[in-house]
Design goal:
Oligomer: heterotrimer
Order of helices and strands of chain B: HHHHEEHHHHHHH
CATH topology of chain B: ABC transporter involved in vitamin B12 uptake, BtuC
Shape of chain B: globular
CATH architecture of chain B: Orthogonal Bundle
Number of strands of chain A: 4
Largest sheet of chain A: 2 strands, antiparallel
Distance between the termini of chain B: 57 Å
Strand content of chain A: under 5%
Structural class of chain A: mainly alpha
Strand content of chain B: under 5%
Low-confidence stretches of chain B: 286-291
Mean pLDDT of chain B: 87
Helix content of chain B: over 70%
Chains: A mainly alpha (314), B mainly alpha (291), C alpha/beta (256)
Mean pLDDT of chain A: 88
Chain lengths: 314, 291, 256
């Protein structure tokens, strides 16, 4: 076993330990709520980081995929009698297909144009959710049924925490496998230089579409889980602001860093809760952090700190 | 029939002119720095909100407007100096995030300094509509149209007949060459932010009597202005105006003839359509990557 | 034996004929050099041959197969690889990973095995890593195996591009000004490296301004001027060709 693999499994072990010990530090429902939301955000961000940090393709519309997953889990069981798991999978498959359909034309665009196209796509989703009142309940939102499987209904803080912790662990494990494989290297190559990647035999467009679809499916599943957990969803889940929050988490934690995505998601989920007492100043602090982070540490927290540590050691 | 159509056309041209002015701001900054300024909508907000609150403090309207526009321009300078310049070497994504951070920060500040309520500004020339073939045209619409034309003429004079304006043009065409002939490109970038902040604030003042203004008014207006720029071809000032008018008219016609529910989606559907079929906008040039 | 045959290849950009009715054939195992003044169309020709630019007309026959108009990654799969005149390094990776990307087509890269970290992927990764390390030693970059690509000096990056191109296991390697910006000692190393690559049976297509390098390594030389073939032949024939001397060499000599 070589160094990087040792690090990888050591990291996974640490994560498992942290997740298992988490409940010892969670003292009330509020703490659990924050932890569960942070975990769900982390899952979405890991997927999004594959797209933004690894493959270098920005998306300002991923909240749209998250919301579609959430609404699939709300609407399909209620109106069409789907099993909650069936609804979740149907939602994920549908989102995957939508992402595939839009990825093909959209991912031919670069930089600002890609940002604008994904932004437009996300906003259209949220406007549809807002306006189709008969199906979605419109801006007032709609209730979501329980998540049940094999005769067991997920309820209570600890059960939800456990479920999200397991899903997060699986996501991290799969993402680490992927980034340490030829696929992950191809994604980074697409980011580094598209023409060189193509000249080395990497089917650039194939990998862009692949990672876009994968990240969309991950967002959809996390959205489904969130819908069942919160029991009530509104079109805000798919808003432009939510898309921005997700991108911010990725960038704050660190581009092309799985650990970074977890750190970014946790920080930006916990921070607003802590700032809730200063509700009026929340946006000021949030905006200031965003700007100063990007100016002072453009690589994000984890890579910057890791770089400092590496520099001091050698 | 015709009256109805004209009515929609007037309202479309009015908001379209506003989108165009905002889009012009995007184009000016993009040309100078290749930055897409996601805080452009906040300049619009500052223009409207500052005018409202200055007038509440007893400042006469024309002076309030001037101070508001100057204030927005100052914010633009600060953003360029401390947000963009200090982040030299950032990636496209990094710069996008910095301006998004600025947008959130400015909205937060507006909520604290002013408030979270909706405010109306009195129309500049009264509310008595002018009847044209059965359609009502608000005097404010005429003012907006006039302002747009004057702005275009002013910018044209500025870009073609002043030293600094020509320097901005040169920087837009080839930043490296501009630097080589002694143009201070950092100053150009700052100036571009000041100029487009002023343009945005002006749009904000002009539109406030029609749509009301509030701390978050800039979000949608900014995005629609961006849409105008994309439709017209990124970095093409005249294209941005045309793009704004196209988006505005399409929106008004959709709201009038089809459904007002999807009015806000129109701009984004147009964007997707343009990006997918004419990736360089209606009036843009193709970019070529050199190997 | 002919390995690459190009006929009537043409490409214009906005009315300017960058490559105009170019014909040539490259024998297997040869070092075939393309020289010509700046703007003669050399890089455009490379971009056409490697699928980064689509030709307006003409045909590219690679080892008997018509590969005209195939995209870059499909040409790579058929054994075409290249380096870039202005470096196209993946600066977001280590030097070794850069070379490993070159081996992409020979790795186990199906999505699901990669996602689940199957043992076949692990074995393939271990093989790729060893192969990439060997290649870095081969081009003389043994000291930089674990370094970030961004930490390498310019001369090393030039060789990193060659190692990365070799990792594709090419049948034909196209080098776009591999010695540009290098000092004489570094150029001599590139000279030796090209000869070794050719000895190992890889056909080399070389674009280069350094004439000492070109005279030393080439089996055959083609001169491009204004997108057209001006002359073709061995080093001696080219040097003796008055047209070439006037259009290109003489021009250069006067500069000095």
């Amino acid at each position: 076993m070589n160094g990087t693999r040792l690090q990888r499994y050591g990291g996974l072990l640490l994560l498992a330990l942290a997740l298992a010990l988490g409940p010892l530090f969670l003292q009330n429902g509020f703490h659990y709520n924050v932890a569960i939301l942070a975990g769900l955000n982390a899952i979405v961000c890991i997927g999004l980081n594959l797209l933004i940090g690894y493959a270098g393709q920005i998306s300002l519309g991923h909240a749209g995929f998250y919301a579609l997953g959430a609404y699939a889990s709300a609407i399909l069981p209620d109106r069409f009698g789907f099993h909650p798991l069936g609804a979740m999978i149907t939602g994920a498959v549908a989102v995957g297909l939508i992402a595939f359909a839009v990825a093909r034309p959209i991912l031919r665009l670069k930089g600002h144009y890609l940002a604008m196209a994904t932004l437009g796509m996300g906003i259209i989703v949220s406007i549809v959710l807002d306006q189709e009142v008969d199906i979605t309940g419109g801006p007032d939102g709609m209730p979501v049924g329980d998540l049940s499987a094999f005769g067991y209904v997920v309820s209570g803080n600890l059960a939800w925490y456990t479920l999200v912790a397991i899903l997060l662990f699986i996501t991290v494990w799969l993402a680490l496998n992927l980034v340490h494989s030829p696929v992950g290297r191809a994604l980074k190559a697409v980011h580094g230089s598209e023409i060189a990647a193509a000249a080395m035999g990497v089917d650039v467009f194939h990998y862009k579409v692949l990672v876009f679809v994968v990240s969309a499916i991950i967002a959809s599943v996390a959205g489904s889980i969130f819908a069942h957990y919160s029991g009530f969803i509104t079109p805000d889940e798919g808003s432009f602001i939510h898309s921005i929050e997700l991108v911010t988490m990725v960038v704050l934690g660190g581009m092309a860093s799985i650990t970074g995505s977890i750190v970014g998601a946790v920080l930006l989920t916990v921070l607003p809760q802590m700032l809730a007492d200063f509700h009026d100043y929340e946006m000021i602090v949030f905006g200031a952090i965003l700007m100063s982070m990007m100016i002072l540490m453009p690589k994000g927290l984890v890579p910057t700190l890791a770089g400092l540590f590496k520099g001091r050691r050698s | 029939m015709l009256a109805e159509f004209l009515q929609f056309l007037f309202s479309g041209l009015t908001v379209g002119a506003i989108y165009g002015l905002i889009g012009l701001g995007f184009a000016v900054i993009y040309n100078a720095s290749h930055v897409i300024n996601f805080a452009q909508g906040e300049f619009v907000m500052i223009g409207g909100m500052a005018t409202v609150f200055l007038m509440k403090a007893g400042v006469p309207m024309p002076l309030a407007i001037l101070i508001a526009i100057a204030g927005a321009a100052a914010v633009g300078w600060v953003l360029a100096r401390f947000g963009i310049e200090t982040a030299r070497g950032s990636t496209v994504v990094g710069l996008i995030i910095i301006t998004i951070g600025a947008s959130i920060l400015l909205r937060g500040l507006a909520q604290v300094i002013w408030d979270r309520n909706f405010h109306a500004l009195p129309a500049f020339a009264g509310d008595t509509p002018i009847q044209i073939l059965g359609a009502a045209l608000l005097p404010q619409s005429l003012i907006i149209g006039t302002a747009l034309v004057l702005t275009m003429l002013g910018l044209r004079l500025f870009f073609e007949h002043t030293r600094i304006g020509k320097a901005m043009q040169a920087t837009a065409i080839d930043p490296l060459a501009a630097q080589l002939v002694g143009i201070d490109t950092r100053r150009i970038v700052r100036l571009s932010f000041v100029l487009s902040a002023a343009l945005g604030a002006m749009a904000g003042v002009l539109v406030a009597p029609i749509t009301m203004t509030y701390a978050n008014v800039g979000v949608m207006l900014g995005l629609k202005g961006f849409a105008a720029t994309i439709v017209g071809g990124l970095g093409n000032p005249l294209g941005a105006i045309a793009g704004g008018l196209i988006v505005g008219i399409a929106e008004a016609m959709t709201a009038g003839y089809l459904t007002s529910a999807y009015k806000d989606a129109v701009a984004f559907i147009i964007i997707l359509f343009v990006l997918l079929f004419m990736p360089n906008g209606l009036f843009g040039r193709a970019e070529v990557t050199k190997v | 034996m002919t390995f690459l045959r190009v006929t009537g290849l043409s490409k214009s950009f906005g009315g300017v004929k960058a490559v105009d009715q170019v014909d040539f054939t490259v024998k297997a195992g040869h070092v075939f050099s393309i020289i010509g003044p700046n703007g003669a169309g050399k890089t455009t020709l490379f971009n056409l041959l490697t699928g980064l630019t689509m030709p307006d007309a003409g045909a590219i026959i690679l080892d008997g197969e018509d590969v005209t108009g195939l995209p870059a990654h499909q040409l790579a799969a058929r054994g075409v690889s290249r380096s870039f005149q202005n470096l196209q390094i993946f600066f977001n990776m280590t030097a070794l990973e850069n070379v490993m990307v070159g081996n992409h087509l020979h790795t186990t890269r199906r999505f699901l095995p990669c996602l689940f970290g199957s043992s076949s992927v692990r074995d393939s990764e271990a093989r790729t890593r060893i192969f990439a390390e060997e290649l870095m030693h081969y081009v003389g970059l043994g000291d930089y195996v674990d370094a970030d690509a961004s930490a390498l000096p310019y001369g090393a990056l030039k060789r990193l591009e060659i190692a990365r191109a070799l990792a594709t296991r090419p049948r034909i390697l196209m080098l776009d000004e591999p010695a540009a910006g290098l000092n004489p000692a570094e150029t001599a190393e590139i000279d030796a490296l090209i000869k070794r690559i050719a000895e190992d049976g890889i056909t080399v297509l070389l674009v280069e301004h350094d004439m000492h390098l070109v005279w030393g390594v080439s089996d055959h030389i083609m001169v491009l001027n204004h997108g057209r073939v001006l002359a073709e032949g061995t080093a001696e024939e080219i040097r003796a060709n008055p047209e070439v001397v006037e259009a290109y060499l003489g021009h250069r000599a006067r500069e000095r």
